[in-house]
Predict the 3D structure of the following.
Amino acid sequence: MKRITCFKIVVLSLSILFSLTMIEFFLRIVSPSSPFSPLIPLRPYNRMELHVKLKGVSPIAIHSTNKWGLRGEDVPADWNKFYTIITIGGSTTQCYYLDDHKTWPYLLQQRLKEKNDKVWVGNAGLDGQTTRAHLIFMKEVIPKMKPKTVILLVGFNDLGLSLSEDARLFGSPWDKTSLKYKIYANSRLIQILHIWKLIIFDKVVVVKKMGHGDYEPKALVSETPFPSDLRSLLPSLEEYRQNIKKIIDTAKSMDIRVIFLTQPALYDNTEYWKKIEGGFYWIKKTKNVLSAATFSRLLDIYNKELMEICKANNVECFDLASAVPHSSFYFYDAAHLNEKGAQLVAEKIAEYFKI
């Protein structure tokens, strides 16, 4: 009796597995999955309603993605007739807590459309990602999208690799994707079931828990002594340099215009910030206690390094950091732009941009 029961269970399991395999095979033929890499967590048709309390940010915002998993308008059907731009970066590009129509990539599109209505900007910013992930995006995703231009805002998260030994040695958790995502990315059946779940049951996900918060200055008690050459505190700087060069080479091999942006911040190297404790809450387990002014100097090293590499390789680099004032009028924390900040950034990049 037990043998018969076990046999039935095995037969049933194999039948279910065979049926799911055939369904997956059929769906891949009639409804192909996203052509992009499972190493990059782009989630198509995601829609969230955000309820936030951040300075300079609307209390209710819509955060959604198009069929490519990018923030921004639908992908143009007549792609080749548009001047297409993809923005790559971390959370300062993604503008997670800002409404779809208030992120700097969307506002940049609107400003550029004043001169050319055939402009489209897709926001590929992904929270926490470093140049390690940006390089993967350039190699595996950009060749399939084939935009005219790629804009990269880089610096903060690579600085984090230097300041956090765990992140440097074991990788930023945001640069890697989980097994759960890889299964999702490689199964058309799961993707379709997920989309139908969103349509039928969820409609829109309401998010009330925030991962970010308003910046509140904290007086510095004592700063850890540091060497005169701050570069000795940045062990990942050489990797950053090499990643930027590889990104440039990849863009040139595809004949794609690439524009780098230096990273603006609230902190500045002034007497006031020398008395304020520095740090970014997403950088964990730092060994040293440094002032906000020292953090500003460390970020400036990355920004200057970026400009020097671009100059040496005859690649465009817009010094956005120098164009955005170090003011809480534009930031809700030490790094992330509020709505006024996004407007200013879009304005400055549009002034620089020539198409």
Remarks:
- Residues 8 and 14 are 10 Å apart (CA to CA).
- The chain has a mean pLDDT of 86.
- The beta strands are 47-51, 60-64, 83-89, 119-123, 149-153, 205-207, 257-261, 316-318.
- The first strand starts at residue 47 and ends at 51.
